């Protein structure tokens, strides 16, 4: 089955460019478009895409608020890929904190766009981990804010789960973590699932944000 994608951007040329790049791939299908975040929830309910590729800055409802609305009101929501002009943007970090799964620069090469959509859909690695670390250093509270510290304390991660969270923050895939920890990939998947469940987050991007916000992992 192809990865289905909904494109959300107020610039028609951006949507057209993304559509052309993605639909050139046999395993990706663009199922719809929208010009503003306000249209995301009804379109997702109707089209059920695997991934929403969404601009972070839009005139009516921006990508941050659209992400919050989507995660709040849709059961089994799709993965959310924020599309942005500027990498070091507080709006991008705000969208990640709100629940987005990763971000993509509008100037990215076609191969990078395709890779980002596939990686977000698979959910087995962190997209652009170095950039997420930079955003956390710039806009997060590296000393550990109280709410995030409380989440980590309540999670009571085991020593191995803590190792897995640190490796996730570095962007390692399940296979790479398995090799580093000298265990099987199924064991790593079990540890990742346990970390997500204990932290109460839906994916590894949110787990890594929680790790940075709490001070469990130092950005940089």
TrEMBL record:
CDD domains: LuxR_C_like (cd06170), REC_NarL-like (cd17535)
Domain named HTH luxR-type: residues: 150-215
Entry keyword set: DNA-binding, Phosphoprotein, Transcription, Transcription regulation
One Pfam family in the UniProt entry: Response_reg
InterPro entries with a match to the protein in the record: CheY-like_superfamily, NreC/VraR/RcsB-like_REC, Sig_transdc_resp-reg_C-effctor, Sig_transdc_resp-reg_receiver, Tscrpt_reg_LuxR_C, WalR-like
4-aspartylphosphate modifications at: 55
Domain Response regulatory: 4-121
Gene3D superfamilies reported for this sequence: 3.40.50.2300
PANTHER family (UniProt xref): TRANSCRIPTIONAL REGULATORY PROTEIN NARL-RELATED (PTHR43214:SF24), TWO-COMPONENT RESPONSE REGULATOR (PTHR43214)
Name used for this protein in its record: Response regulator
Organism listed in the record: Streptomyces heliomycini
Classification lineage: Bacteria, Bacillati, Actinomycetota, Actinomycetes, Kitasatosporales
